Amino acid sequence: MFRLCLLLALCCTGGWGIEAEQQLKLVPIIKSLAEQKNDGSYFFAYEGADGSYREEVGIVRRSKNHMRSADDEDVHSAVAAAAAVAEDNNNADDDDDTELEVSGVYSYIDSDGKQVEVSYVADKNGFVPVGTNIPKEISDAARNAVQSLEVRAGKRS
């Protein structure tokens, strides 16, 4: 009985070692881009030699009550307006009324050899993924929840 248990244990651990070894193959990155702005906005993208990729954009939005407009201030020229926007962007780090909106896409080949692609949007209202491996009902539920929050926020304004 002991020999049978020992044989079973060795077979199980040996098989796991092969599977783990297959999962640990490193994929070289063949393309990589990244950009960071002073206001916190960013962009990055990369592509693997196996065809996998990811791209993401993050945009920092300032709240409307902190945005400058021609009606609120005496802005006489496009140059003055551009300077005001630049000043707002430089002061973005000091302002707690900023929001980060993120959108992106990623793709990979799954264990069955099929390409999986997922796009997503994330903001103050939540995360909405849409993809070939995500059931439509989940994406629709997330999208409806975000729209519901946007409607409620619109009524408060």
TrEMBL record:
- Listed InterPro entries: CHIT_BIND_RR_consensus, Cuticle_Struct_Prot, Insect_cuticle
Signal peptide coordinates: 1-17
**Keywords, A to Z?**
Cuticle, Signal
What PROSITE patterns does the record tag this protein with? CHIT_BIND_RR_1 (PS00233), CHIT_BIND_RR_2 (PS51155)
Highest taxon in the source lineage? Eukaryota
Record-given protein name? Larval cuticle protein 16/17
Q: Which organism is it from?
A: Drosophila arizonae
Q: Which gene encodes it?
A: LOC108615282
